[in-house]
Amino acid sequence: MNDQRELSIKVDGEMFVVNDEDLTLLDFLRSHVGITSVKDGCSPQGQCGCCTVLVDGQARVSCVTPVKRVIGREIETLEGLDDTLKNTWAKAFIDAGASQCGFCTPGIIMRFAALQKSGEKTEIEKVKRSLHAHLCRCTGWQTILEAWDDFGNSEVAIENDKASERASIEGRTPQKIGFDTALGKGGFSADIAPSNCLIAVPDQLGGWSLGESLTEARNASKKIQGRRTTVKAVPPIELPTGDWDAVLRTNWVEPGYLETDSSWCEPGGEPSTPLANGGAFGSKFESVAPSAARQLADKYKRPVLVLLSREDSVHLGHKRPPIAGGVNKNGEGIIRVARTPGIADAINSVAPKIEVQEIDLPGPITSSKVRAAGWAEAKILLCGAFGEVGTIISPDGSEASAEIDEKSINISVRCGEVLNETVLRSYCIGAAHMAWSWVTSESLAVDVNGLIQDLTVRSFGIVRAGEMPEVNVEIQPDSSKAVNGSDAVFVAVAAATWIHKGTLPEWPVGN
Ligand code: FES
Ligand code: FES
Q1: Is the minimum distance from the CB of 63 to ligand 1 under 6 angstroms?
Q2: Helix residue ranges per DSSP H, 332-420
Q3: Which of 330, 346, 360, 491 has the greatest count of CB atoms below 10 A from its CB?
Q4: In ligand 2, which atom is closest to the CA atom of 102?
Q5: Residue 509, in any domain of the structure
Q6: Does the Cβ of 200 fall within 6 Å of ligand 1?
Q7: Are residues 109 and 56 part of one domain?
Q8: Using CB atoms within 10 A of its CB, is residue 294 exposed (0-12), middle (13-18) or buried (19+)?
Q9: In whole angstroms, what is the distance from residue 97 CA to residue 422 CA?
Q10: Domain limits at 171?
């Protein structure tokens, strides 16, 4: 055997020579083989599952697999799956509403393909456990499990304008639903940037490190890998004094969107959006990536791709502002909130008698554009004061209610013309997951100096597939103009969860 053969791996049936043994399998596949279905959601943490491929038929996260460890072995990616198999999976995901932004979907399809290949009869509990290696921030898991069940049985795959229109209304940014997005081709900047781009990553001093490859740029930046911290997450704001019917202190919360911020730009051009196919529910509207791509492209007179790692996106991304509030049944109260542009208006849009006090806190940057920020907390506090959710009416005019029993979360939503029931249901289930997870489990540890300590995907506390109650969605017919319904669902489920768990004064309340 000559040296070249010894340093080769087979990817989707074709041999490739490994000429840099220090790379991870993920970097090798993306930068040397040009496979973009393997996504980088957290490398090299190995915690989001977006980079999952098959190594000799077994599912493996490629970001923690050194390429030298798989020399001589067979790698299979989504691109290499048999066309019928690939399309049947895509169809199952689309028909179940199990793929929204689609960033997590290729990795999950590969996980399912491995389970299927193992040939054993797979119990649903095993499928749920297999998803513990993954994170999906959009769909709330249930529809993904339905896709597993639906495999091979789905009749018609929706790929139409009405489905994408509903997705765009719910995501508040243009989104497409279809085979391409389910197969990881949602048009993410890191996938579509021209190959001659300089790559820019944040350095440790507030500037940018550049390189001809991601590995070169990251090595130059001396990136420090995030670890889970022992610093405890504590709600950072004290309650206002008063005689209240309900009080609540919330924590810093990481939005945890899967596609980390990226944008590419030509000199003098328009930067690409970091929201290629939604998926951040407002959290990426103020991303640093596009303006940096534009500036660096002009400075270096080259196309530049700005790419944030998971740790960068936690450090630089906008968080939901923490609050501490007390309210009375007559709708009066005080909400103290981390100073955030637009937050007082958001609170007063639904609760005009609540006084808003903005507090300067050391801590991460916050945004009122994060899903329902401010108005959610105000409504939830008022629900807590009355001990019931009733009907939540959002500033968009949609209506939602939620009830929780031992086993399930039951939702009703009215939000104008349905457009596509599968897609609307999917966004409502995703919103229910986000709400349940926020109230019971999520927080971000920030130290006394305001520095974020939780930098890994697992440390955010996002509820996993096996831990989620069943969600039932009833969509009320309505012929008026379609408006966003999942934000009202998010608020209704958060309020119902809080009440169900005993209206404890500090979030997360625990499971
Ligand atoms: S990128 Fe590999 S597990 Fe997240
Ligand atoms: S569809 Fe799973 S992260 Fe967006």
Answers
A1: yes
A2: 343-350, 375-386
A3: 491
A4: 1
A5: no
A6: no
A7: no
A8: buried
A9: 6
A10: 81-187
How many domains are there within the chain?
Answer: 4
Query: pLDDT of 289-323, one tens digit each?
Result: 999 999 999 999 999 999 999 999 999 999 999 99
Pick left, alpha or beta for residue 140 (phi over 0 → left; psi -120 to 50 → alpha; otherwise beta): left
Q: What is the DSSP string of 87-114?
A: HHHHHHHHHHT--SS-SSHHHHHHHHHH
User: Do 281 and 345 fall within a single domain?
Assistant: no
- The residue from 300, 316, 332 where one domain ends is 316
Q: Is 248 part of a structural domain of the chain?
A: no
User: Quick one: average pLDDT of 172-176?
Assistant: 93
Q: Is the pLDDT at 121 greater than 80, yes or no? A: no
Model pTM? 0.96
| 52 Cα: distance to centroid of ligand 1 (angstroms) | 7
Residue to mutate (ligand 2; options 37, 50, 51, 100; most atoms within 8 A of CB):
100
Q: Which run of H or of E encompasses 241?
A: none
Question: Looking at residue 463, what DSSP letter applies?
Answer: P
CA of 63 to the centre of ligand 1 (A): 5
The position carrying tokens 């000799």 is: 56
- CB atoms under 10 Å from CB of 451, counted, come to 13
pLDDT in tens, 319-360: 999 999 999 999 999 999 999 999 999 999 999 999 999 999
Compute, in angstroms, the gap from residue 418 CA to the centroid of ligand 1.
35
| Ligand 2 closest atom vs CA 100 | 1
- How far is ligand 2, taken at its centre, from the CA of residue 308, in Å? 18
Ligand 2: residues whose CB is within 6 Å? 99-105, 136-139, 258, 279
Q: Give yes or no for residue 104 CB within 6 A of ligand 1.
A: no
For residue 61, report the phi and psi dihedrals to the nearest 5 degrees.
-80, 120
135 CA from centroid of ligand 1 (Å): 9
> CATH no. for residue 447?
3.30.365
